[in-house]
């Protein structure tokens, strides 16, 4: 890449944390080498690059490792020129960081055991209905409060171009769609959450997003395979007990 910079991304399917780094690199127009990790058999490079958490993603820039997806996103924005992912305005930066933390905390691809493994996106929120519109995540992210707060009527959370919040929520789009296929649930329903449903379509249509976002069918297949493996293991345990 330009300036002799060398970028290596340690990643693994089906991590949305990795997807968000790929989105940020794509929107910045940066090229990089993708190093696929086997999380069941982590490489020496991963273990030495992220000795604290031993997780992907790790971005290695000219030999220097950076861990934790949100830290990586901000590093990419600061270290490289190109479209800014965060505005210069301190207050707007604070609002964007608030919603990024909120999405990370409340909207998760959750894996749980309930007679089988389910990988679905669920609002990780136990607050009671506060305003008659579902409360909690419904009122906040799903009800569009985040979008209204950040975008000021512009197409993206980042305004006219995508920013940190777009990338963080956008990295979950393929999981949202896979969840819809697997459970029949509508995550962002145009009838109930028109702003977010329109944002999802707008974000998904961008060239960078199309190149980076994993195939929904691949996620569905991954989940179904995991379900089969878990069911087979459960059957063996039951027959031995
Ligand atoms: N907070 C981390 C989470 C990263 C994470 O959970 N990575 C998972 C894959 S989705 C991982 O590497 N898991 C391997 C392990 O837990 O051993 C981030 O934002 O980067």
Structural overview:
- About 12% of the residues have low confidence.
- The chain has 2 domains: 78 residues, 3-Layer(aba) Sandwich (Glutaredoxin), CATH 3.40.30; 128 residues, Glutathione S-transferase Yfyf (Class Pi), Chain A, domain 2 (Up-down Bundle).
- The protein is α+β, with helices and mostly antiparallel strands.
- The chain is built from 11 helices and 6 strands.
- The longest helix is centred in the last third of the chain and has 25 residues.
- Strand 1, helix 1 and strand 2 form a beta-alpha-beta unit.
- It starts with 6 loop residues before the first strand and ends with a helix.
- It has a 4-stranded mixed sheet, with helices on one face. It has a two-stranded antiparallel sheet with strand order 5-6.
- Please report the number of helical segments: 11
What is the strand tally?
A: 6
Q: Average pLDDT across residues?
A: 82
What is the strand arrangement across the widest sheet?
2-1-3-4
Helical proportion, percent range? 40-55%
Q: What portion of the residues fall into strands of 2 or more residues?
A: 5-15%
Query: What's the assembly state of these chains?
Result: single chain
Pfam families: GST_C_2, GST_N
Keywords: Cytoplasm, Transferase
GO molecular function: glutathione transferase activity
InterPro entries: Glutathione-S-Trfase_C-like, Glutathione-S-Trfase_C_sf, Glutathione_S-Trfase, Glutathione_S-Trfase_N, GST_C_Tau, Omega/Tau-like, Thioredoxin-like_sf
Condensed summary:
With 241 residues, this protein is of the alpha+beta class. The protein contains eleven helices and six strands.
């Amino acid at each position: 890449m330009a300036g002799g910079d060398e970028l290596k991304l340690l990643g693994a399917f089906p991590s949305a944390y990795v997807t968000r780094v790929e989105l940020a690199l794509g929107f910045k127009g940066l090229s990089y080498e993708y190093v696929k990790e086997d999380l069941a058999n982590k490489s020496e490079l991963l273990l030495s690059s992220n000795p604290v958490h031993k997780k992907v993603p790790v971005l290695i820039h000219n030999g220097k490792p950076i861990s934790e997806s949100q830290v990586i996103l901000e590093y990419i924005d600061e270290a490289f020129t190109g479209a800014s992912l965060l505005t210069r305005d301190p207050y707007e930066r604070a609002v964007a960081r608030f919603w990024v933390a909120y999405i990370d905390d409340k909207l998760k691809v959750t894996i749980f055991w309930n007679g089988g493994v389910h990988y679905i996106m669920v609002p990780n929120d136990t607050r009671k209905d506060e305003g008659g519109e579902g409360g909690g995540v419904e009122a906040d992210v799903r009800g569009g409060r985040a979008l209204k707060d950040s975008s000021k009527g512009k197409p993206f959370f980042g305004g006219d171009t995508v920013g940190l919040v777009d990338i963080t929520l956008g990295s979950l789009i393929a999981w949202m769609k896979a969840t819809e296929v697997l459970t029949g649930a509508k995550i962002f329903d145009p009838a109930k959450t028109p702003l977010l449903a329109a944002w999802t379509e707008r974000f998904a249509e961008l060239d960078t997003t199309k190149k980076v976002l994993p195939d929904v069918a691949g996620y569905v297949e991954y989940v179904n395979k995991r379900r089969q493996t878990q069911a087979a293991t459960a059957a063996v345990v039951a027959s031995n007990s």
